Amino acid sequence: MALNIIPLTMRTLRQFTLVVIMAVAASANAAETQRVLMLGDSLTAGYGLGPGDGLVDQLQKRADDTGLSVRFINAGVSGDTTKGGLARLDWALAEGADKAVVALGGNDMLRGLSPADSFQNLRGILERLRQDNIEVLLAGMLAPANMGAEYQTDFDALYPALAAEFDVIYMPFFLQDVALVPRLNQPDGLHPNREGVAIMVDNMMPYIAALLAKQN
Length: 216
Description:
The protein is of the alpha/beta class.
């Protein structure tokens, strides 16, 4: 089973973005707008940011500017865990969705919750989305070393294992190039500021374009 991982160097990402987005945009001219559910926590919800500055708003603007026919649905809830995401998934899907971005697990890690439980919750989310034939981009998180070597190993293994099992598009680290960079984060050191979110969008766009292009 192929694992849908796109190389992560910034130069490769930007080059790939231009090529893929142009191809997707060209093929989508006559297509209906795809609805992409953004299932996540405060990073998705736009915690601490004003209108237009959050992740979903910046993704929408970037997609509009590049001609992608897509509408992002903000289903981010600050403080949410994988368990919470699973519990509210049916409600989140009530508006309808063609594709989904699953970006949960950061709060599980910060609270030291069991990686095995997080795995089962994420697995439940992916199973539910598969039932509705909704293609998925799984955005991974990484545990810091101060969580302990065993916890770090177990947590970091969750996302690639699930991506392989469900054959979904996989972004290994949601906060790539932003985590632990003070100038890109709000004073709490955990939530990206407007500039940090812009980098997240840069990094996500190749995966978003691949998600839009993927057919059930």
